[in-house]
Amino acid sequence: MKKILQKLAYTKPLDGSFDWVMLLFRILLSVELIYAHGLKKIGIGVGEAEIVPNPLGLPDAFNSLFADAANLVFPVFIIFGFMTRLATLPILAVTLTGYFVLHFHDAPLVKDTPYIYSLCYLVILFFGAGKYSLDQLIERNRIES
Questions:
Q1: Burial 86-98 (b: 16+ CB within 10 A, else e)
Q2: Membrane-spanning residues where (predicted)?
Q3: Per-residue confidence at 6, pLDDT binned at 50, 70, 90?
Q4: Which residues fall within 8 angstroms of residue 53, CB to CB, at 6 or more apart?
Q5: Which of 4, 20, 67, 122 is a plausible cystine mate for 52, CB 3.0–4.6 Å?
Q6: What is the pLDDT of residue 125?
Q7: CA distance 3 to 15
Q8: What pLDDT was estimated at residue 13?
Q9: DSSP secondary-structure letter at 112?
């Protein structure tokens, strides 16, 4: 029992667990973003495609393409750990705009979704993809050559 309590109270990641946790976190978070927000933007699973809000007044075609890419394409990059930090930026642009512009004056239960997605992708931005990623594989091959 004492060992269990010590492990629970230990503040640093357990040996080797950080990279596995980041892999699982990246995959689960990005699959959920694609499933919950991306597919409905292209009309999969719904009667018709969702109309993408345009709170910044950007050209409609660009706004729609950017939101679709942020919810469908860049999460795939993050799942594989390819250009991970760069891929988080468009996602954060959409989620932070949703939080600070689109839903800022809404009830907390409405604006919590973009808030949580923003926090999660900020974690990925700051910590990177971890050891189990294409980024790491590319970096290792670059150093060896």
A1: ebbebbbebbbbb
A2: 72-102, 114-134
A3: confident
A4: 102
A5: 67
A6: 97
A7: 15
A8: 66
A9: H
